[in-house]
Amino acid sequence: MSTxxxxxxxxxxxxxxxxxxxxxxxxxxxxxxxxxxRLYLEKPLPDWGPSLxxxxxxxxxxxASPEVAEKQSWKELPKEITDTFEKLGIPQAExxxxxxxxxxYDSGIVYHKIKQELAEKGVIFENMDVAxxxxxxxxxxxxxxxCVPISEHKFTMLHGALWSGGTFIYxxxxxxxxxxxxxxxxxxxxxxxxFEHTLIIADEGSSIEYIEGCSAPRYQQSSLxxxxxxxxxxxxxxxxxxxxxNWSKNTYNLNTKKALVYENGEVQWVNGNLGSAVTxxxxxxxxxxxxxxxxxxxxxxxxxxxxxxxxxxxxHSASNTTSTIRSKSISxxxxxxxxxxLVKIAKHxxxxxxxxxxxxxxxxxxxxxNTYPSIKNENxxxxxxxxxxxxxxxxxxIFYLQSRGIPESEAERMIxxxxxDPIIKALPFEYAIELNKLIDLxxxxx
Length: 446
Prior knowledge:
This protein is of the alpha/beta class. 24% of the residues lie in helices and 36% in strands.
């Protein structure tokens, strides 16, 4: 059966086997999928966090192909797909400031390209399905083993059973990738689910910057996004991972992101989350080697009918490790933003340092912001700080700006722009402009 024919609703072992067979996967991957499916069927839904009652698991489309083979030329794609991605900025992504671009439409990669000079240095940038075919032993070593095992939680189990597409990047020792690599993921079917897998390996002394964008149109029936990101930051390596997720407001975004960071390695997370009915997302860093570092910067916007349950986790498992978590949220029109984070210092992690700062801005009396921090410290040499601030736009600030001839709506927008400025500065120029536009649209209610 061809990929294009696999569209039926519901979850079954037969569907999992068919997907694996269609992709011509090795036996070990099929067994991993089936093990994940068995765990998923036995595991209840989480009893904490936002309600997931809006998801119809029985009638969901768990696999939806774009019915287009992967291309390396943008001109070869059907107009329907190019029109969709033009609205997201994909054509601009072929400019010289990017090292490579991938685009996924529903469950399949439709476009993929890497600059020749990077390929000549040994950099691998493939869609995840192709990587499994070309580099099976490398994928087997890293895929859902040490970083995000299939057993981690209910939705990594579902992901492990049904994953399709995504991004695979390997950077050889000592190679510094100066140009960012980029991927877009688009869900375009009503009542469907997307399970793309991102696996990035920065070998010793290497560095890479990766940018990911996600979106979906709004339909009557809710959709599910349960992707997975695994980052491996080896000794003296660096990964900067940036993600802008602008899902429709009936998408349930239950994404899992984690990094393993070895000696003197560094990971930087930059996340912007808008849209979705419910988001549950907590980028995590496990600092395994001495001198490992993690920096997490995130912003969420919760509007009418939305729950943004986000945060970050840092696990210090080695000495002289450092983590920084900065979280910013904006709530409007009854939206709910929750910060849910964890800092854990292991008993043997001497001189670990961690700083957590949560800032929340509430734009009206109907909205809500909550903080659920968790700190577990087993070493008395650790330095840990946690700061949380919740506020509204003050009348004094508005009055000050109005007194200088600035209309009230523009004054409010200027204050919000200042609030989100740290994450805007962390983004590449074109992405910063796009995020500003998205926030403006959310504030204006368009």
